[in-house]
Amino acid sequence: MKIVTNKSFVLNDSNCTFIRIQPGDLSITIKNILIQIADLSWLNKIASDPLKRAFSQNASATLLDLTAKFNNAADDSTIKSVSGEYIVSVLTKEAIIYYKNHIDVPLMELLGRKKTGNPGFDFYTEDGEPNFLIFCGEAKYQNNSNAYGSSIKQIKEFIRDNKHVADLTIIRDFVSEESQNNLIKNSFGVSSGFSSVSSTSDDSLINNISKNPNFVDLLSSCKNILLVAVDLS
Fold first, then answer.
1. d(CA 83, CA 81)
2. 226 in helix, strand or coil?
């Protein structure tokens, strides 16, 4: 994975960051993803042994399913069609953790959530001390398209439906109490990860996103926004 853009700016008093990723060789990217999700060291954060066993079982089942999907994909186009959204999720979260120094939270699918319907956000990270902010992340993939519109629209709808508040029951062992309290008080951040077309310039993407009606609405309710474009076309 190569970061080609990392810029911060302010829009309507909201702190925004735009990050752009070039995954490179997808076969290598997939191997790295599988290595990451096979690392279950995050289980050590769970004090309850029964809960630790339950989370371990859920994560292991997800790993087996994803491994089968990736191994059955014959080429890059097939990989992207069956797992593009998952690739965007993992790479977006990895970039945020590395370049924004956020604390990692296991992917929601690893924690047992099934991706059927619209159950809630795809991933979370935490901007720890001194900010203590939970960032709610949604990833979208569209073939040969800049998928920011669907990602931002989904984020807006999830916040409206208080999905982020409901998810505290799942992520509480992985984020600080201070950040949980801030989220309940409506102080949190959002992360939009989306597939992007490499020929679309950064300025064009940022300009188009800033004019997106759902993004404009989001600016009025959230003061910390991360935008991560993943070049998959």
1. 6
2. strand
Contact 21, 230 (CB under 8 A): yes
CA 176 to chain centre: 19
**pLDDT at position 23, please?**
87
Tell me the C-alpha distance between 7 and 90, whole Å. Answer: 20
Confidence of residue 180 (pLDDT cuts 50, 70, 90): very high
End-to-end alpha-carbon separation of the chain, Å?
A: 15
| Number of domains forming the structure of the chain | 1
Run of H or E including 70: helix 49-72
DSSP per-residue string spanning 185-210: TT--EEEEEEEE-TTS-HHHHHHHHH
Q: Residue 86 belongs to what domain range?
A: 2-231
Cα 118 from Cα 23, distance rounded (Å): 27
What is the distance between the alpha carbons of residues 215 and 136, in angstroms, rounded to a whole number? 15
Per-residue pLDDT at 24 exceeds 90: no
pTM greater than 0.85 (yes/no)? yes
Stated as kind and residue range, the H or E segment containing 11 is strand 2-11
User: Structure tokens of 121?
Assistant: 């956000």
Angle ∠(192,152,33) on CA atoms, nearest 5: 30
Do 152 and 212 contact (CB within 8 A), yes or no? yes
